[in-house]
Amino acid sequence: MVYYDLYIKWFNDKKQIGQARQTKVHEILGESEYECQALNYSMHSLPYPNTDSIPALKRLTVKVNFSQILNNTELLSQYDIVAARPSNDQDFHYCCMEAEIDIISLKLHDRLGMRIKLNLVQEAIKRGIMFELCYSQALRDINARRVFISNATNIIKATKGRNIIFSSSAKDLYDQRSPWDVINLGCVLGLAIDKAQNSIVKNPEDAISHGQARKVFKSAIQISDKSEFVKQEGWNILPSSL
């Protein structure tokens, strides 16, 4: 059984980068109990560290300008996973109904700033989108923990326990909890034990597969569009001699 953590933090501030940060990233990726992890990238982040020796998925989390960024096929093709973090009703509606993404990541340790409408949640589930609950911020502050529990419980009720992913959003190894601790957290929040286990096993795997399918589908559309353009322009494509 493979355990997944699809949100390990990478920074966009040069002051935070340095050798110490590189070491922490490699520590998380190398010493974690999770066999498959994703290093999160934001639009203005610094380049990824070299993780060739420790396989890690590349993930993009979009927080602003959703329609503009999420329609940039060339940009999105660079990432294994594409997530969005909406902060208002309009963006949440777009992410659930239209956006070609794999994960809706919610900042649950703070006020959501939007209504979690059941019809939108169910439509997102039909489209294969996962709802991500990040827990590390809730570990640091009792008030954040209280808000996290309330928000997470509401999301689990809205999804009926389906398509839930738990991720750490860890900055270092101490932010990450063991797989069984996370499964227990899921049960405390109202998930049945099989669905709690799915949140770090099956559902993240499905999100990765969704990302692969999204990339193939988008590439196929691009090729189709180019072929149609060639036909309209009346160009003749010579057969390759190779």
Automatic annotation (TrEMBL):
Keywords: tRNA processing
Gene Ontology MF terms: RNA binding
Top-level division of the source organism's lineage: Eukaryota
Keyword Cell cycle found: no
Subcellular location: Nucleus
Any single GO CC term annotated in Swiss-Prot or TrEMBL for this entry: nucleolar ribonuclease P complex
UniProt-listed Pfam families: RNase_P_p30
UniProt-listed InterPro entries: Pol/histidinol_Pase-like, RNase_P_p30
BP GO annotations: tRNA processing
Gene3D superfamilies documented for this protein: Metal-dependent hydrolases (3.20.20.140)
Entry keyword annotation includes Hydrolase: no
Family: Belongs to the eukaryotic/archaeal RNase P protein component 3 family.
Protein name per UniProt: Uncharacterized protein
